[in-house]
Amino acid sequence: MITSRTYHSLHLDIAAADSSNIIYLLLPQRLQEDELILLEELSVRFGSNIVSISGMEWKSDLTPWKAPAVKEGEFAGQASQFLERLKDDLFFNLENSLQIRKPKRYLMGLSLAGMFAVWCALRKSLFEGVASISGSFWYDGFTQWLEKQDELKCVHFYISLGEKENETKVKRFANIEEDTMLVVETLMAKGAEVTFEMTEGGHNSPIIPRIEKSLSSLLGNHHFESETF
What we know:
Blueprint: E1 2-7, E2 10-15, E3 21-26, H1 33-46, E4 49-54, H2 58-61, E5 67-68, E6 74-75, H3 79-97, E7 104-110, H4 112-121, E8 129-133, H5 142-148, E9 156-162, H6 176-189, E10 193-199, H7 207-219
Parallel strand pairs: 3-4, 3-7, 7-8, 8-9, 9-10
Antiparallel strand pairs: 1-2, 2-4, 5-6
């Protein structure tokens, strides 16, 4: 059964399992009721706790440095502070409440949160694996920053991109496929194990099938019986 709670400004939907695996899933908005049912099914199949997190300050908490926003305003670049809040506050308290003593954490994110997840993998040794779903690797300076990093804190990555995502009229997004492939190649050159996949549709395609693919890659196909959603 899915349980829901608020934690400061964040909203958590939790599919609990008797497991040390815990997947933190960062999304721009809450999953719908039918999606939460499917998320619970994935939790059972993969034998893992899955925590969907929404309600963060999207343009602030997930961006590593300041940059112009896409339409107006500014990306505030508060990712370092948000990561510290996750590590020292949310993870600690939630894992205690779920009685997970030696957690094996995985981080997954969509869009800006997908970029944030990869960024985290270069900052903290917190995660067994990281998944970026349609990650915003067009973000100003991100690919250049990644190339300059010396040490991976995580070596297992799953990165996916919708096959129609480069069909955009927004200039900032026009090179998303090239930027994503550069991220994949850079991570591999640094010694990471990276699975890359082009998926059907675009940036706003249904999220549950893409979560399933991410889990399958990071945790292994043997954890569930395949089913098409």
